[in-house]
Amino acid sequence: MELTITTYGSYLHVKDGCFEVKVDETKAQFSVKKISSIHIATKASLSTDAIKLALDNNIDIVFLDDYKGAYARVWFPKIGSTVKIRRRQLEISDKKEGFDLSKEWMLIKIDNQVSFLRELGYKRPAKELYFKDSIAYILELRKSIDLLIFDENIIPSIMGYEGNISKKYFEVLSMIMPKGFEFNGRSRQPALDKFNCMLNYSYSVIYSMVEKACIIAGLDPYIGFVHADNYNKKSLVFDIIELFRVYADIPVTHLCTCKRMNVDCFEQLDGGGVILNKQGKKELLVQFYNHLDEKIRHRNRQVSRKTAIQLECHHVAQTILNG
Amino acid sequence: MLTWFIYDVTSNKVRNKIIKDAKGYGFYRVQKSVFLGEADKSDVDALKEYCSEIIDHSTDSVYVFPVCEECFSKARFVGQAFNKELVCDELKSFII
User: Fold this and answer.
1) Which H helix or E strand runs over A282?
2) Cα–Cα dist A115/A156, whole Å
3) Of the four listed, A19, A30, A315, B76, which is most buried by Cβ atoms within 10 Å?
4) What are the angstrom distances between the C-alpha of A71 and each of A1, A40, A116, A204, A229?
5) What's the whole-model pTM score?
6) Does the CB of B43 have a partner CB in chain A at under 8 Å?
7) Distance of residue B7 Cα from the nearest chain A Cα, in angstroms
8) pLDDT by residue (tens digit) across A11-70?
9) ipTM, interface predicted TM-score of the complex
10) In the 8-state DSSP scheme, what is residue A57?
11) How far apart (Å, rounded) are the C-alpha atoms in residues A291 and A302?
12) Which residues of A touch B19 (CB under 8 A)?
């Protein structure tokens, strides 16, 4: 179970070997056996005992804010596995093996997007032609990525194709949005519309999950293959999250199209932009976590989407290690 | 395995120890002396052994009832019911 604290002034501490969250006079206790991670999405306080108990039980504490998503996390001051994986990661980052991995990830991402669009199109027979055309356009670009052959300056072309595909993908999603949820392209920090605001929030949760999975698998989050290096940029997390973005796209799109989110869930910012308020976060996260917990088929195994993220990171680490 | 854990213990000190242990294993307190929770068989056994060591066998009693999902779905509750989803581990996110 994911514990998310969204009430202002909550206090997380340890009582009788369990986590206890105190909000004014009400208290709720949780056994360490039941919690997989703690997300703190408001101004709250916590005791060092709680941090120790969390880390002793492999529970990560993530701090989220309204704009940027996860801004800090409490995790072990050590790496999750052998440093050999990191060494190999550096070795292959600008070689063909690295390119092959990044190409594979991009193709999987596009396949995920296409199958989601197909599913949406299936339910909307009136717009069949539009969906068909968009999917054909995306598949055409996918073919171009598939045909790319490794050379040293190839990465920008992958990114270029990927950018065009994403643009088309979000164009289609925008078209099916009901009134009040339309959007024009992606926007971040702050999101300019409700859809982007929900998407950014869910991406930031997946982002922190992928980062945790990378560290556990022994991968260095900073050494990526597709995304460029930058100061303190966790390029590998950005690379791997591409595989799982669709896990956020699906519940967010459904919440919007089913009109489950109402005006009370959002707050308009003075300088333009939208953020989720407490109720909005609750609506979104409940749906989102339920979606993450659904069982899917992943590399011939029946696992929840959340477990799939961890398994995929282990798989990447193994691939890198064995060459 | 969903398990009922029920006790009748005279000594306050022993009772508090048992309560603390049961909570730690992931049981939820559904009544004053009744716990219910989804727990591993090994955890249930460990709890039972611990109780067996510390309770006064001449006055106290501890019952552990595992219950299958089908049987639990037939159970009926009246009055102040507990959060069934939370206790059965069906709740994937708890938002405070």
Assistant:
1) helix A278-293
2) 25
3) A19
4) 22, 11, 30, 10, 19
5) 0.75
6) yes
7) 18
8) 999 988 889 899 888 888 888 888 888 888 888 889 999 999 888 888 888 888 776 667
9) 0.77
10) T
11) 15
12) 16
